[in-house]
Amino acid sequence: MLELVDLSHTYGSYRAIDRVNLKVAQGEVVCIVGPSGCGKSTLLRSIAGLIKPTGGTVLLDGKPVDGSPENLAVVFQDYSRSLYPWMSALANVGLPLRRRGLDRKRRDAAAMAALEQVGLAGAAAKFPWEMSGGMQQRVSIARALAYQPKLLLMDEPFGSVDAQTREELEDLTLRVCAHHGMTILLITHDVDESVYVGDRVVVLSKAPGTVVGDLTVQLPGPRDQIHTRELDAFVRLRAEVGRLVRGMTPHRNGVETR
Amino acid sequence: MRRATSGVLRFWIVPVTLVLWELLTRMTESPFFPPPSRIVGQFYDMWLSGPVSQLLLTDSALDTFGPSLGRLLAGWTIAGVLGIALGVALGRIRGLAEYTDPVLQFLRALPPPLLVPIFFVLFKIGTPTQLAVIVFGVIWPVLVNTTDGVRAVDKGFLETARVFQFSRYDILRRVILPSAMPKIFAGLRLSLSLALILMVVSELVGSNSGIGYSLLYAQQSYDYAGVWAHIVLLGVLGLLFNALFLVAEGRVLSWHANARRNV
């Protein structure tokens, strides 16, 4: 459903990403992992239409993307700059639904349902500044859920919360988003997280970022923070992705490489 | 502890000043500086000895305050609406501010009281001219602050709006304006105190009603206690407006105060 063809972007003379090619199928959860400064965010911002890439194309359902595509939601890393502090959680989640032509009552109902799914039904009337970072990021996820996009982009979504909250949010993403059959592209610098959350892990090299590895994750579901992470397959994959991220030659035993 | 002390201090400084003032003016016996007790007496006789049904205000008080406060609030409201509308346009339409800046800076530098003769020619003598003076004088803080505020909207807020494809109206109404609201309110507050001053100034020339006119009248009848009573009245009105404004601001911007406290 999403296809990147030779996607490149340069800021002045700085090449952030260089000829990235990637195909994502409907319903896949793809994690993009890479060292810091590998152009991960540039990649996501190009897909979201927030910047115009200097080269290559983004195809969504076969059609080239120009501007911000329909049916696309983003969960940003910095929730404090993405949730509006002058609105309650409910209003924040319901706001994007205005353009779907829903009346107030149905917007509120949809927003409430989404907040329930992320376990925040009781905090609907709260304002972002009354919530912890983890709660705010749940609201961001709820906003994306209520919007029902076909493609959900997540830009280091759990980068600003503590480790426990991070695990909770990873599980929440797996559970809730899988339930909706959404296609997810999650960007992270965390090797563990990419293997734990993804159906597929795509590794980008240092800048200029380009695809250096594309691994299928075959782990038994449902995944579990403790058990999944101690499986041999998980440990092997993690090592493999870790090597790729550090730019070492990959070991190819036991891991299916595309 | 320190808070309590400073509170007491603030309260007793007022009576001490009053007593000193009373003693000094009684000693000098200058006709231009009547003692505060006489000023208060005059204040009471003129405006506060009315029937309970009028909240103790006399007919003279209603006749004097009514037109003045009406002009003040009307002028301030018009200036607020115009200032916000123009400020949003200047802040969001690329290039517009650069084109219009010289003209705006020129207009802003003109002292509104000096424009009274021109407004006399342009508008009718009386309320329209007074409104024009107030609007022209108080629009600038709102205009400048709104322009600043709508320009300084966090990029993250706008990117979110773009990704979720908010309509232009929603971006303005639910993202840009609320985000600029703290600055807009700062401008409105400054304008309100300016509006009080310009109301009096505009009534000093070519008016036959209002607080300014009444002040002039008292001066011309050598009623210095009356003149001082008007000055006290303006101070009280300024205090009152500021307090009311802060209450309104607290309600509208509670998110802002709280969001900052929690960061």
Can you walk through the features of this model?
In chain A, 33% of the residues lie in helices and 23% in strands. With 258 residues, chain A is of the alpha/beta class. Chain A has 2 domains: 1-71 and 150-258, Rossmann fold (3-Layer(aba) Sandwich), CATH 3.40.50; 83-148, no CATH class. Chain A is globular, with a radius of gyration of 18 Å. The model of chain A is unreliable at 253-258 (pLDDT under 50). Chain B has a domain at 57-151 and 183-237: Orthogonal Bundle (MetI-like fold), CATH 1.10.3720. Chain B is built from 11 helices and no strands. In chain B, helix 3 packs parallel to helix 6 (127-151). Classes of the chains: A alpha/beta (258), B mainly alpha (263). The A-B interface holds A 48-50, 68, 70, 72-74, 76, 78, 81-82, 84-87, 95-96, 98-99, 127-130, 143, 147 and B 154-157, 159-160, 162-167, 170, 174-175, 178-179, 181, 255-256, 258-259, 262-263.
Key words describing this protein structure:
heterodimer, A: 258 residues, alpha/beta, Rossmann fold, 2 domains, six-stranded mixed β-sheet, four-stranded antiparallel β-sheet, globular, disordered C terminus, B: 263 residues, mainly alpha, MetI-like fold, 11 helices, 81% helix
Could you provide a short overview of the structure?
The complex is a heterodimer of chains A (258) and B (263). Chain A is of the alpha/beta class and 258 residues long. Chain A contains 8 helices and 10 strands.
**Total domain modules of chain A:** 2
Largest sheet: spatial strand order of chain A: 6-7-8-3-9-10
Find the CATH superfamily of the domain at 57-151 and 183-237 in chain B: MetI-like
Overall pLDDT metric of chain A: 87
CATH superfamily of the largest domain in chain A: P-loop containing nucleotide triphosphate hydrolases
Category from helices, strands and their pairing of chain A: alpha/beta
Low-confidence segments of chain A, given as residue ranges, are: 253-258
Percent of residues in helices of chain A: 25-40%
| Greatest interface | A-B, 26 and 24 residues
Secondary structure category of chain B: mainly alpha
Largest sheet of chain A: 6 strands, mixed
Q: Tell me the CATH topology of the domain at 57-151 and 183-237 in chain B.
A: MetI-like fold
User: Beta-strand level of the residues of chain B, as a percent range?
Assistant: under 5%
From the spread of the alpha carbons, the general shape of chain B counts as: globular
Return Rg of chain B in Å.
23 Å
What characterizes the major β-sheet of chain B? Answer: none
The overall pLDDT average of chain B reads 88
H and E string of chain B:
HHHHHHHHHHH
Radius of gyration of chain A: 18 Å
Could you say what the CATH architecture of the domain at 57-151 and 183-237 in chain B is? Answer: Orthogonal Bundle
